[in-house]
Amino acid sequence: MGFKSIPNFPKTECSEVFGHIPGVPVGSTFENRLFVHRTAVHSQTIAGIGGDRYQGCYCVALSGGYEDDIDKGYTFMYTGCGGRDKEDGEKPREGPQTCDQSWDHPDNMALKVSSQTKKPVRVVRGHRLRSEFAPVRGYRYDGLYVVESAWMDVGKSGFQVCRFLLKRLPGQPPLPRRHETLRLDLSQWERPIHFGNDRGPYAEPISTSDAESCSESDSGSDSDSEEERRVFRRKVYRRATPMATRNVPLIRRPRDYYGAALSSRRRSASPPPRRQRQPSPIPPTTNIQAAERRLGAQLPSAPPQASAQAPQVDVLALAAEMKRSRYGYAG
User: Fold this and answer.
1) What is the pLDDT of residues 26-50, one digit of tens each?
2) For the segment 264-280, what is each residue's pLDDT rounded down to a tens digit?
3) What is the spatial distance between Cα 171 and Cα 144, in angstroms, rounded to a whole number?
4) When comparing pLDDT for 219 and 311, which is higher?
């Protein structure tokens, strides 16, 4: 599996431990699974379960890989590994269910042991998870959960799957939702950190004194004007502060055809009237009667033609003449 972005820091903590990882507060975000692995939050870069079949499970990742997963935030139903074997012996991590899962798989056995020992499990949610608690992009560390129960059940594909019920431990920051309308109050908790080469949802705040010292050191000589320093501080503030805290309207105002913002007065006014097209002139008519009515004069008519009448023929006389010429008599 190739990653477009690679961390530029080494792995300094061990992933095979129970509980939180030092330096990674709850709610921290990651650009990809490689950053999750480097920070030791998850021991695997692709697999969803990280643990030992004798010690238990250390961490799980919710990435939407199984259709039987049900995420409700503070509790969720998790599906075990395996059950996708092919005829050629290949065991892909993605694809439809082709056979039954079993407790012989070390990852499934690790979660089953954790359901007995009740040791905490670190949970990471990915953006591919079909849940309102999934992050918009990347991955997010959502704290510690405990495995309440483990059992075997028939999945949606008709095969046996290992299922687990996990519940979130109390005393942790609230979980954000993907379509959250109200901002969560995280003032009493440690500020989350974003691990990645991209700009994540969190940015380190820069105080006014830091901005002023930064402007004095980077803006040049002491002869710079106060306006230039003010502009520089504004740029630093915009670069270091998330958009949601800058008092920037999230809804753009409508604009006209030329790109200028429309004011409320211009939006409420009625649209300008459309220009009416001038009717084209009526072409001259060829109707003689209409022309006579329009001109009010009688046009000269054609001269009358002499009627040719057919001559009157005596049929009886003609028949008698034909008999005389043929038979020699008129009888």
Assistant:
1) 999 999 999 999 999 999 998 899 9
2) 555 555 667 777 777 77
3) 10
4) 311
Residue whose C-alpha is closest to residue 36's, from 189, 168, 138: 138
- Measured distance CA(222)–CA(202) in Å, rounded: 33
* d(C-alpha 331, C-alpha 329), whole Å: 6
Q: What angle do CA 70, 73, 79 make, to 5 degrees?
A: 30
Long-range contacts formed by 92-100: CB under 8 A, 24+ apart: 93/46, 93/47, 93/65, 94/65, 96/157, 97/155, 97/157, 97/158, 97/159, 97/161, 98/159, 99/159, 100/159, 100/160, 100/161
Torsion of CA 173, 177, 178, 183, to 10 degrees: -70
Note whether 18 and 120 are within 8 A (CB).
yes
Give me the pLDDT at residue 316, please: 83
Per the structure block, which two tokens stand in for 47?
């697999």
What pTM was computed for the model? 0.59
- Compute how many other C-beta atoms are within 10 angstroms of the C-beta atom of residue 164: 24
Q: For residues 195, 200, 201 and 204, what is the CA-based torsion angle, rounded to 10 degrees?
A: 70
Contact by Cβ (8 Å): 34, 44: no
